[in-house]
Amino acid sequence: MYPTHHIQSTPSTNILARDMAEAGAVHGTAVIASYQTAGRGRLGKEWHSKKGKGLYCSIIVRPPLKIKEYPKITLTAGVAVSHALDSMTGLISQLKWPNDIYYQGKKCGGILTESSALNIHLTKRYAIVGIGININNILEDFPGELQDNVTSLALMTGREFEITRVFERIREQLLVQLDLFCEKGFAHILNIWRQKDFLLGKKMRCVSTDKKVIEGTALGPDEDGVLHVEDRNGMIHQVLSGDVRLAAGSEGS
Fold first, then answer.
1. Are 93 and 103 in contact (CB under 8 A)?
2. Residues 5, 20 contacting (CB under 8 angstroms)
3. What is the mean pLDDT of residues 77-84?
């Protein structure tokens, strides 16, 4: 059994998990909260955490990966969460690069991965995989400006889910997929990820690695997990991070 710390409320489960990891918490240790008062998404965005309705958790992982492989943990976590949720809902999810879970064109969850300093000894290195999933939320639980673009497991299936069971399935899959990554390499993970690529072929707007705002067609991530976008002139751009948005009119494509 992996240690699990259940708490009622916290500003952020990632912050608590980091403290535990620094104190030596073992691989697979998790923090799960009923409510987050300052949940975060990528780029410092707020994650809306409705009390008792969603999954708000962070899982400490210590995979024996080389430093250059650590950025790929986010895509690996996406595959894990996708597998876990699909197995429980009977639906097919998609993954929006680099860290979002989508169902039927709407966002259902997100992943925020943070790591220790990577230039330390392998035995002390770790990553925190923060996961937020909309589970039993109804539409009114979301701010009005988000209601057209988000969903929950309950909204899609018409039934409620036991949040702890969803968490256990996700943690199990995360550890399984990380083991496969370590044993078989990232190509195995990437192949699955590409089959679920929400952005592939869609028109999008993002910031490239040379800090330029570009619009183009998403070509998907490469073997390093870097997103490639082709602009209207046929030039290929790399996207390492940043705010990736669909271009106007492409949501239904």
1. yes
2. yes
3. 98
